[in-house]
Amino acid sequence: MSSILQRVARRIRKRVRLTSHAASADAFLVSYPKSGRTWFRFILSHYFASVAGGCEPVDLRNMFSIVPNYDLDTVRGLPAFRFASGQIPKILVSHLDYRASRFLMRPVVMMVRDPRDVLVSAYFHATRHKHRFEGDIGAFIEDSAQGAPALIQYLNGWAGGLKRRRHTVLSYEDLSADPVMNTRRVLEFLGCKVDDASLQKAVHAGQFDAMQSRERVEGIPAHDYDRGDDESLRMRRGKAGGFLDYLSEKQADRILELCQTRLSEAAKHLLVPTGLDLRSR
């Protein structure tokens, strides 16, 4: 019985600590996995380190000390955040499902991406990076825990939650087309005075080839995977619309069918910046 009480007490302490951090956050950066978050986190980290006068070069490991995960991991989470209050915005990053008590009423930057690209990337992440799925991509699309149903549930939850809070939506497709303009838009949403030189340097440092080369050398903290395998990398291809190289027409249409029939109207609206308009006419 005492061990059960201890576990409950630990969960309560963890929840209290996270709630305290949420209350002091300037904003949350949220996305479903494989929507481009690592890339954008690197750009933001490079930018904030530059304007704060940090002399340590930003890489795929120390970027978590600038834009941390919304958890208590000592390397990638809140304990790693190294800036004093007010020095840079405190942007907490999360893949968690929406829950009002979890994110309080803090502003949100939500990243979205074409579901077909998300699921292709998620498939390779699950099979080549994490080794937690066996089967072909058609089976993965239907998988309730990792495929289209999980993505749809996530988007529906967040679409409802965003109605009640200040937010902006950033698509992978828009960021790919014009990373400077769209990063500037997010910085302005965060209330930051934009330094043009630092912004240009951050975007340049975040170019895909440079990011992929960094990952091959540095890896991602707490992830053990074959960095010589292109399909296992976080920076796998960096191509909007790359799903066309992996999905059959039937598989791509199946994803759209699931999204069309199961996404809420609000969630469909979230996807419009990706170039995919599934809204009822």
Bin the strand percentage: 5-15%
Structural class: alpha/beta
Termini gap:
58 Å
Report Rg: 19 Å
Question: Could you explain the architecture of this structure?
Answer:
The structure is a single chain. By secondary structure, the protein is an alpha/beta fold. It is built from 12 helices and 4 strands, in the order αβαβαβαααβαααααα. The chain has helices at residues 2-24, 37-51, 100-103, 115-129, 137-142, 148-162, 172-177, 179-189, 196-205, 208-218, 249-262, 265-271, and strands at residues 27-31, 91-94, 108-112, 167-171. Helix 2 (37-51) packs antiparallel against helix 9 (196-205) and helix 6 crosses helix 12 (265-271). The protein is globular, with a radius of gyration of 19 Å.
Main features:
globular, alpha/beta, 12 helices, 281 residues
